[in-house]
Amino acid sequence: xxxxxxxxxxxxxxxxxxxxxxxxxxxxxxxxxxxxxxxxxxxxxxxxxxxxxxxxxxxxxxxx
Length: 64
Description:
This protein has a single domain (2-57), classed as N-terminal domain of TfIIb. It is built from 1 helix and 3 strands; from the N terminus they run αβββ. The N and C termini lie far apart (27 Å). Strand 1 and strand 2 form a beta hairpin. By secondary structure, it is α+β, with helices and mostly antiparallel strands.
């Protein structure tokens, strides 16, 4: 239950999502993977229209 709350909290902090590199539509946040050993979390985004997936570090300033 705690993990679900963390994911929901992380989703609430996102104001925008990256645009799909293929079609330009907003991608949806699919998962957040906790970084090991102090590394940054990794966010995985998917495009429902074209099926393209991207991953990026949670601290990456390309979002919002």
